[in-house]
TrEMBL record:
Cross-referenced Pfam families: CECR6_TMEM121
Superkingdom as given in the UniProt entry: Eukaryota
Annotated TM spans: 12-30, 42-62, 74-93, 113-131, 175-194, 214-232
Name this protein carries in UniProt: Transmembrane protein 121
InterPro entries, sorted: CECR6/TMEM121, TMEM121
Length: 308
């Protein structure tokens, strides 16, 4: 049997500490939002849930630490999906409690919740990618290109969290119930899927990673984040007079649309000019060297023929 790869213990500890600390802070929000006997019941429920989550995390985090030096990111995708799935459920109940208690205008606590999410979620993504452990990426230029792509993913995550934070931060005029629910679950789905797409691109390319061929995530983010969220912010600004709409992130979306469109055009131009080179490269990679024989046919094996 092949022995399992060694586990990167610092990586496992760092990801586990970040995940459990953010979960504990979410639990603190949930407990403080309830009073009386209900507070004790909520406390017991979140503790039981955290224990079950910690049991699952104990194995998944170790598997993630075992693949951190390889080109695979399969367990990293599982851990990300599990973390966001549980985290957003807690965020949903926190948001509903704030919505039910309209008299509570604790602006600092709501802003702190936004800050907590905007720090913990992107940092966990960076830890799961672990670009500094990609020893198989020899060229410094390639590693810098990958790092630039990860920067765009982090900015997209902050963009999604900014839209979602509009639901629980203090507001003068609330959105319709259907619009709030649609906005929350749209951001929920994006947080679940898009980072996993980015991790899968890195995993699918393996050791011979080529950054300019990783185009699936830029296409999805262009449509689902840069274009659709631009319409969401524009609608909130025009129809609901929402003063909390971030003009900086609107500018970011417009700039990202321009830059990504130029990148797609350049990549398409490279593909049109590259087929012969790619064909030669594929032939070189797929040719199997066979021994040559003077008569064109391999000799017959006899009992006196030496064997290796």
């Amino acid at each position: 049997m092949v022995p399992p790869p060694p586990t990167n213990k610092p990586h496992v500890c760092l990801s586990t500490i970040l995940i459990m600390s953010s979960m504990a802070l979410m639990d603190a929000y949930l407990v403080e939002q309830n009073h009386g006997p209900r507070k004790i019941g909520v406390c017991i429920m979140v503790m039981v849930g955290d224990v079950c989550f910690l049991i699952v995390l104990r194995y998944v985090a170790v598997w993630v630490g075992a693949e951190v030096r390889s080109a695979k990111r399969g367990y990293a995708m599982i851990l990300w999906f599990l973390y966001i799935f549980v985290l957003e459920i807690k965020v949903y109940f926190i948001y509903q409690n704030y919505k039910a208690d309209r008299k509570s205008l604790d602006t600092i606590a709501r802003k702190a919740l936004t800050l907590l999410l905007s720090v913990s979620v992107p940092v966990l993504y960076i830890i799961l990618v672990a670009i500094d452990h990609m020893e198989y990426v020899r060229a410094f230029k390639k590693k810098e290109e990958i790092r630039n792509r990860l920067f765009w993913v982090v900015v997209d995550l902050l963009d999604i969290l900014d839209i979602q934070a509009n639901l629980w931060e203090p507001q003068k005029k609330g959105l319709p119930i259907w619009a709030e629910g649609l906005m929350f679950f749209y951001c929920y789905i994006l947080l679940l899927i898009l980072p996993c797409v980015s991790l899968s691109e890195i995993s699918m390319q393996g050791i011979n990673i080529v950054p300019h061929k990783m185009m699936l995530y830029p296409i999805l983010s262009l449509v689902t984040i840069n274009i659709i969220t631009l319409f969401i912010r524009g609608s909130n600004l025009v129809f609901y007079k929402d003063a909390r709409v971030s003009g900086i992130l609107i500018g970011k979306n417009v700039l990202a649309i321009i830059l990504k469109t130029c990148s797609f055009a350049q990549y398409r131009k490279q593909l049109q000019n590259a087929p012969p080179a790619f064909g030669v490269e594929l032939q070189k990679n797929s040719v199997i060297l066979l021994p040559s024989y003077p008569d064109g046919e391999p000799p017959l094996l006899t009992e006196d023929t030496p064997r290796c």
